[in-house]
Amino acid sequence: MSREEFSVIICRVLGVGFSAAGFIHLVANIVESAWDFNPNYLGFFLLTQCLRPSLWILGGVVVYALSRMLGRQISKW
Amino acid sequence: MVVRVIFILFFAALQFSSATDSTSKGSEVSLTEKYPELVENLFAQLDLNAPVLSLVKKAEASGDREGALELLLIYYRGKYIPPELSPELPPAREDFLQLAEDATEDVFTIQSETFQQPRKEDGSLDWDHLGPKQDKEWAWMMNRHHHFNYLLTAYRETEDSVYLKTISDHLIDWISSHPPPNRLSFSTAWRALEAARRLVDAWLPVFVNVRKDQILSDEALFLMLTSIPQHAEYLLEHYSFWGGNHKVTEKMAVAICALIWSEFKDSEKWLNQSVSVIEEELFKQTYPDGSYKELANHYQKVVAENYLRMLQVLTWKARDRIRPETRERIEKVWDYFACVSRPSGFGPLNSDSSLEHNHKLLGDAIEFFEREDWAFIASRGEEGDEPEGSPSRYYPWAGHAIMRSGWDAQAVWAFFDIGPHGSAHQHYDRLHLSVSFGEQDVLVDSGRYFYKPGPFRHYFRHGPGHNIVQVDGQDSKRPPNVIDRPMNLQRLLTQSIDLFEGEVNFSGTAAKDGVRHKRTVIYIRDEGWLVIDRFVSFGAHEYQTHWNLHPGCEVEEQGEGLLATWGSGDSAHVQLISGAAGKWSVVKGQMEPEIRGWYSRAYNEREPAYSTRLVQKTLGPHQNIWWIGADVFDDNLMSIRSGEQNGEFELTIQTSDGEIELSEEDGRWRIEN
């Protein structure tokens, strides 16, 4: 396996890891809050409970999508 | 000029009579033989061209060093000190005679601890010993020489020479064994704050009050004189450069040195440098509303007293040095100090404070600033002119809200902290509420106890020692230590009600925010306080609402709340009128499993007091509404409609002036009518 291929795989693993961690956090936050959910606080809920895990997921997807380019760049270091 | 000439003639006469006596002194080793180097240094630092030292100069010029020194001591013993620079001895404690008696036997009482200070092998006192609790604070206090004050009082009252002799001996002992270090030092003897306090609070009263008395030996007076420029130079060069109350105190000591001992060559330099730094620090260390940035009543006192002293001494000698804005800011510092006081006269016990009797400390400031409204506050309405407007106050920089019904001893009073953390001596007390009914404190801040790290320090400094809410056993996140603009907090001050609101956050995780806690305190004049705690959170959390009571109160659970009683049947209610069910815990003087239920009114003193805690476990956003008043909450007093939209409120309150409609919309409170 070339150095570039190895870097691409590492980037993809990281991307999947970020997304998976974000997804787990998101599900956990929703499940935790669902028990006594108050729709009056929907805005607060989305902002404080869902935004950050969603950014983790998004970050993971971006890293995965750019893994080939990132791998190429990293392999040149 | 005429006065100066009279002085010179007067001291010349003194010098003449004394010079004839001095020749008959026996075969004792003279000071010039015993301390040749110190004598040399002393003469090198004196401005012998000063007219008042003309005879000293003459003797020195003729090569009679011993005679010159003798004349110098005679001059200092007779030197005129203006009343503005003569500190009065602090009011004598009842037990001052016992304290003085103890001090003659090396037994000292400092911050409520009594201990026999050991002596070293050479017989000198071990000034650096850490005392009974091995606390550095003890050694620092020892090196401030505050015991001189009660020795002086005892000498004044009894005229027994043993007290003054002890001071004399201690001066010789200390100065001989503690040459100044040529660097910034945190040693017990030469930490800069200790050097300043020693000079101003202990040595200056000795010099001013008993310099004429021969029991204060020539050797002690001489050593004191040699040590004055050492102290001044040390404090000028090696001060607490990081600022705070220490720096102000230290520079103030240098200024006083320069004015009292103006015969030293560098005294003009001492004065110029110290006054400019003190002025600069005034604006750096205080907020425009008059609060001192450490936000602790004790340190507000320290700084206010220092600045008043500066004004007093400069008014005497260098009136033109005082800029109008400096005077105005110092007046504001005192105004804050006057207006935060409780009906009992004491100030708030916030952050690292002991109980300070603000009213009793106002005397000099009232006289200096000619403030009749402060006289009214200090006399609780018996003298002076009543301050205009509402008796409640809000300090937008300190974030301190004072709610009160009046300025008399029977008024009710509350202190609500919604400000920054403080620049030093901070406690984790944001959203803390103290309440007093007349002279009886009911809901209290537990105080500071001491500075030694450990479980007690932790208790007094953190959440459980304050009337705040903890979430999952954690304190809220710290607000900023200092701010550069007033906090944008909600407040309404009217004739009938006062309203203040503050907010804190609790830490979350990488995946979500923590809990937000908003506390709104509404004071309904002549009725009581409504405290609305609102929590925005998702998921399961444990909320611990702490209410700490004064040791003078007895407490019992009553329904969903507490009944505090004191004295001959007076009482106050702390009622949960709306909120999730929870479990109360009431303890007093508890050590295990955790320290709770203690109150400290002064450093090193603690006493058991009721500490209560309501523990609620909830899953989502919720709110608690508390009623604090002398009477049980009356449904007819107000109707509360809440929680329709994001916990917003509508209150209809019946007051003596009629009905008031208070509502909250988009997070802003307003009065409808």
Blueprint of the fold:
The complex is a heterodimer of chains A (77) and B (673).
Chain A: H1 3-34, H2 42-65, H3 67-75
Helix pairs in contact in A: 1-2, 1-3
Chain B: H1 2-22, H2 31-34, H3 36-45, H4 54-61, H5 65-78, H6 96-104, E1 107-110, E2 113-116, H7 136-142, H8 147-158, H9 161-177, H10 192-210, H11 218-237, H12 244-260, H13 267-285, H14 297-317, H15 324-339, H16 358-361, H17 363-369, H18 372-378, E3 393-395, E4 400-404, E5 412-417, E6 433-437, E7 440-443, H19 455-461, E8 469-471, E9 490-493, E10 497-505, E11 516-524, E12 528-536, E13 541-548, E14 554-557, E15 561-566, E16 570-578, E17 583-588, E18 598-599, E19 607-608, E20 610-618, E21 622-629, E22 638-642, E23 649-655, E24 658-665, E25 668-671
Antiparallel strand pairs in B: 1-2, 3-4, 4-5, 5-6, 6-7, 8-13, 9-10, 10-11, 11-12, 12-21, 13-20, 14-15, 15-16, 16-21, 17-20, 18-19, 22-23, 23-24, 24-25
Helix pairs in contact in B: 1-5, 3-11, 4-5, 6-8, 8-9, 8-10, 9-11, 10-11, 10-12, 11-12, 12-13, 12-14, 14-15
